[in-house]
Write a structure and sequence with these properties.
Shape: globular
Low-confidence stretches: 1-30
Strand content: over 45%
Strand order of the largest sheet: 8-7-6-5-4-3-2-1-14-13-12-11-10-9
Structural class: mainly beta
Helix content: under 10%
Radius of gyration: 18 Å
Length: 273
């Protein structure tokens, strides 16, 4: 699932840590980011952990279907300060009987949010796949090396170079949190290019206004409403509508997702850091 915040699939714990080891073996130097891919970060500085409750629309009834957690923390990456973000989602045992859904997403990026590495391992029902993206910035351009593991075990590898910035779903998520929406009017649009799978996805973010949202921790938050859309059959289709706090941190409080098999919602349950 090529979603900005979508709940996809989770590999086993062993595969997850093997990926970390593979990353260390394959990347011998941290890339120098192109200025076009850097963004001033005001949304977070230290450790941040956000937990969510997931709800699925099951035959016109909303049921609690699982949990999600996102952790962002500062690290040292080959002698340079950087950040690592991870997003883990898990459907409940009740839902697993009908459709198991697991997702582990991991992204490394510079302190100025330039992407370095991305990995997504996903299991949807019987389908399992892995996406990986490595970023380098030769001559001020953005070069991506993409690897994709399909359910049948076949693999695909591609390299692309762009004159504009390209990022992945998790890095884009953090970049969006640093947008200055002070002067935005309803309908304001930001274009986004998402790397993953075997192709580049052209997407956009559309500002939809403001709303107060009550989270699962009982707190009401004044929020900005943002619609993430991707091109489908030559038309933009909303993939997720998310509600972020109307402040400099832009913490996601609620997410409304349009999935292949229906719709889902995620509500913030707790936050640390």
């Amino acid at each position: 699932m090529k979603r900005l915040f979508t709940m996809g699939l989770i590999p086993s714990t062993r595969m997850f840590f093997n990926s970390c080891v593979l990353l260390c073996l394959l990347v011998v130097t941290a890339p120098t980011a192109s200025a076009q891919c850097t963004t001033k970060n005001t949304a977070f500085s230290g450790y941040e952990g956000i937990n969510y409750n997931l709800y699925f629309n099951w035959q016109f009834v909303w049921i609690k279907a699982g949990t999600a957690s996102m952790v962002t923390q500062p690290i040292m990456y080959y002698g340079k300060k950087a950040y690592r973000s991870s997003l883990v989602t898990k459907s409940s045992s009740r839902v697993d009987k009908y459709f198991m859904m697991r997702d582990t997403i991991m992204a490394y990026f510079s302190t100025e949010l330039a992407p370095i590495y991305y990995r997504k391992g996903a299991r949807e029902g019987k389908r399992y796949y892995v996406d990986e993206v490595w970023y380098t910035y030769p001559n001020g351009k953005c070069k991506t090396t993409l690897k994709h593991l399909y359910s049948d075990g076949t693999r695909d590898r591609q390299e692309h170079t762009y004159n504009h910035c390209v990022s992945d779903m998790l890095n884009s998520f953090q970049r969006v949190r640093n947008y200055d929406a002070t002067n935005w009017k309803v309908g304001h649009t930001e274009n986004i290019y998402i790397a993953g799978g075997s192709k580049l996805t052209k997407a956009r973010l559309v500002y939809k206004g403001k709303k107060t949202v009550k989270a699962d921790n009982g707190v009401k938050y004044p929020c900005l409403i943002l619609s993430y859309q991707e091109i489908d059959d030559k038309k933009y289709k909303e993939i997720v509508r998310f509600f972020v706090t109307d402040d400099k941190r832009h913490i996601p409080v609620r997410l409304d997702l349009n999935l292949r098999f229906g719709s889902a919602k995620a509500f913030l349950s707790s936050i640390k850091g």
